[in-house]
Amino acid sequence: MGAFERVLMRAFGRPEGILGRLGGTVMARLNQPCAAWVIGLLEIRQHDRVLEIGFGPGAGIQLLAAAAPSGQVDGIDPSQEMLAQATARNAVAIARGRVGLRIGSVERLPFEDSTFDKVLAINSMQVWPDAETGLAAIRRAMKAGGAVALGFTTYSGQQPGGLIERLTAAGFVEAKLIETEKAFCVLAVKP
Ligand SMILES: C[S@@+](CC[C@H](N)C(=O)[O-])C[C@H]1O[C@@H](n2cnc3c(N)ncnc32)[C@H](O)[C@@H]1O
Q1: For residues 61 and 189, what is the distance between their CA atoms, to the nearest angstrom?
Q2: Model confidence pLDDT, tens digit, residues 80-97
Q3: By three-state DSSP, how is residue 191 classified?
Q4: Closest ligand 1 atom to the C-alpha of 128?
């Protein structure tokens, strides 16, 4: 990895230190519209149990808690800096027990099988070290009939091509890609 990629990784990929702090502030502002769009596509119901992977500064978690007011929202992210920012942003919902955030990686999801109705990740899969293992772990943690959404802004570095095939290879069905000028999202169902 070159010097520029290392800086990007520290600011956005796996935020840490001062760069990570700044990166979190930028992402909370820039990526929130994409999170709102993807959450709308997922059609979250009031009582849903939802997981966000790579929650970053926690702007998406806030929207999820509002979308499932009688449900439960969990989040995992390997970055201590992002956990700190997301915890501050969601302090009230965490204190009420409606939101649970923890350090973790998609490859080793710390949840029982068949736990979640909905799972999403925004601008995150492109930095996972092993997306195949991550997708298999997501599938395991989802209830049958549950939906997954992987959303990306056009500046994320992820290409839309091949996403449907990756989700299908991971055992999901009904995979479809939705694109706008600014973002794209692949949605799929656990059979
Ligand atoms: C570009 S940021 C996006 C953050 C947030 N979702 C947003 O849209 O603003 C990528 C996030 O994925 C997290 N991440 C990196 N590797 C991960 C992994 N293996 N499992 C889960 N999350 C990961 C990073 O710590 C970071 O918070």
Answers
A1: 21
A2: 999 999 999 999 999 999
A3: coil
A4: 19
Q: Which residues of 10-28 are buried (b: 16+ CB within 10 A; e: fewer)?
A: bbbbbbbeebbbebbeebb
Q: Which residue in this structure is represented by tokens 């449907």? A: 164
Cβ atoms of residues 58 and 75 within 8 Å = yes
Is any ligand 1 atom within 6 A of the Cβ of residue 54? yes
* 23 pocket-lining for ligand 1 (C-beta < 6 Å): no
CATH for 31-189, among 3.10.100.10, 3.30.43.10, 3.40.50.150, 3.30.565.10?
3.40.50.150
What pTM was computed for the model?
A: 0.97
Helix (H/G/I), strand (E/B), else coil: 10: helix
- Those residues whose C-beta lies under 8 Å from the C-beta of residue 101, and which sit 6 or more positions away, are 55, 58, 61, 74, 75, 76, 77, 83, 86, 87, 90, 94
DSSP 78-119: S-HHHHHHHHHHTHHHHHTTSEEEEE--GGG--S-TT-EEEE
**Domain locations along the chain:** 31-189
Structure tokens at 9: 């990784």
